[in-house]
Amino acid sequence: MNPFVSLLIMAAVALVVAVGGLALSAIVSPNRKNKVKTANYECGIDPTPSNTESGRFPIAFYLVGMTFIIFDVEVVFLYPWATAFHQLGFFGLSAALVFIALITVPYVLEWRRGGLDWD
């Protein structure tokens, strides 16, 4: 038997479980909407009247959260580079420096736009 058949079977089972769970929850779950469920909600704090009228919330918290996720992913991509540093030589060092420079550009742009200010 081909070794990829077991992978295809596992992927098919995962797809059936995922789609089946979504379909079952759509069929079984109650669909009762009320004022509380459809109201604006942000971090457990009731929205202020000015935010409710415009329908927009300040996004500074979300920008900082996304920045953290981006740099967390950057660190994860640097782990393999750090483990194979001696074997990669100068090419590995230059590739890592280019990667860090490309990730630093959005951080600097967000910093200059004031996305990290809490005022």
From TrEMBL:
GO molecular function: NADH dehydrogenase (ubiquinone) activity; quinone binding
Keyword Cell membrane in record: yes
GO annotation, cellular component aspect: NADH dehydrogenase complex; plasma membrane
Transmembrane segments annotated in the record for this chain: 6-28, 59-82, 88-109
Record EC number: 7.1.1.-
Broadest EC class assigned to this enzyme: translocase
Domain of life: Bacteria
Keyword vocabulary terms for this entry: Cell membrane, Membrane, NAD, Quinone, Translocase, Transmembrane, Transmembrane helix, Transport
Xref: Pfam families: Oxidored_q4
Catalytic activity: a quinone + NADH + 5 H(+)(in) = a quinol + NAD(+) + 4 H(+)(out)
Location(s), subcellular: Cell membrane; Membrane
InterPro entries hit by this protein: NADH_UbQ/plastoQ_OxRdtase_su3 (IPR000440), NDAH_ubi_oxred_su3_sf (IPR038430)
Membrane topology of this protein: Multi-pass membrane protein
Stated role: NDH-1 shuttles electrons from NADH, via FMN and iron-sulfur (Fe-S) centers, to quinones in the respiratory chain.
Record protein name field: NADH-quinone oxidoreductase subunit
Classification lineage: Bacteria, Bacillati, Actinomycetota, Actinomycetes, Actinomycetales
